[in-house]
Amino acid sequence: MRGLGFFQLHGPFEELGNVGFCFVILHVLRLLVGFAATSGRHFAHDKDRKKLASYAWYSCYYCVILAWGAWLFYVDKQWGQDMTRVCEWESIQSSMGNASSLHVYHCVQVAFYLNYLFAMVTGIDVKRKDQLAFAAHHVITVLLILFSRNWGYMRIQLATLVLHDAADPFLSLAKMIKAACPTWTWLPDLLMTSFALVFYATRWVLYPLYLVANCREDWRTLYPLDWTRVQDSYTFAASDKGICIGGVFFSYYGLAMLLLYALYVLHVYWGLFILFMAHRKFTGTGSGASSTGDDNSDDEAVEKQKTQ
User: Fold this and answer.
1) How many domains in the chain?
2) Residue 297 is part of which domain span?
């Protein structure tokens, strides 16, 4: 990675330039993957082409980024050997170094989530039923990535991203196969089942019981008076440990905990949504098509019933 001279750790403007560079590269790759997936195929509607192009891109990205993040966490940094130390503060330079793979990974992930939001706003992606929740998830994740990087809590960042990315390849592959080969029903169903199992294992068990729990214990130890400490002489002030607003002190660690809790609320919401869609599918009370999260799946089912 030493040859990547562009990725150096300097000031905020250089960091913004690195993310912007990754944003452009990811968008070009997105267009190339989408073109390769849809070329030579006939589509009844343009939204079907858009679906396949998006799902093919996300399948490729999530598979690569999951392997990359797992390698960093368990092999390169070996942070996964002791999860009780995942909350430790570590110098940015010592954990990243110049042009290290962790720094490039950080920039790529920020650029990806920004590109995802850009695709949602501009209509490159198919509109989702849970678009507002999805946008909120991506904004919170970007903030958590940036804050943890600036505060030196790189272990929290990497562990959170790896846990989040663990289930996504199954979902994206299921959607891609369903869009490319509609007659193949067993393979998407198998992948969706795998997605649900991995989702609940990572986001309902490992995330709250190990990652958030360990972070919460360290937070209580390091900042026992966080969010209650009053300093009447300050309306607003900032230090290297936190900020004071209206006389109440908020540590950066405490603000990070708010972001972790917000992500867990979204995990619960999507987990309940998955259970609801599974109930519809197996009880026959719905078409089951909307389990992909696209807003037009139920409309397509209604149109088919009208034409029969």
Assistant:
1) 1
2) 12-307
